[in-house]
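User: Can you fold this complex?
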Amino acid sequence: TCKIELTKSGKTFEVKSTDNLMLMIKSQGVPVPSSCGQGVCGTCKTKLVSGQVEMKHQGGIRQREIDKGFILLCCSKPVTPKLVLEL
Ligand code: FES
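Assistant: Here's the predicted assembly.
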């Protein structure tokens, strides 16, 4: 499992490491801007403060944004036991 901490909404919860982050965060009642759900549009771009994810995007994020710590929630799964997201 992975512990998810959301800095802005102040929520903490656990997900399975196979879970899609977007769906899990929405299921906690936290609104996440989203559109394509497939890593194309970039709407769900969110700053990952700490931890690592496995992201399978399709051009919705640039390498320099990834380098700054941004991820697309709709196509990411947790890798590390804890993730902190600016959300
Ligand atoms: Fe389009 Fe995530 S919703 S990239």
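DSSP finds two helices and seven strands in the chain. The CA atoms of residues 42 and 61 lie 6 Å apart.
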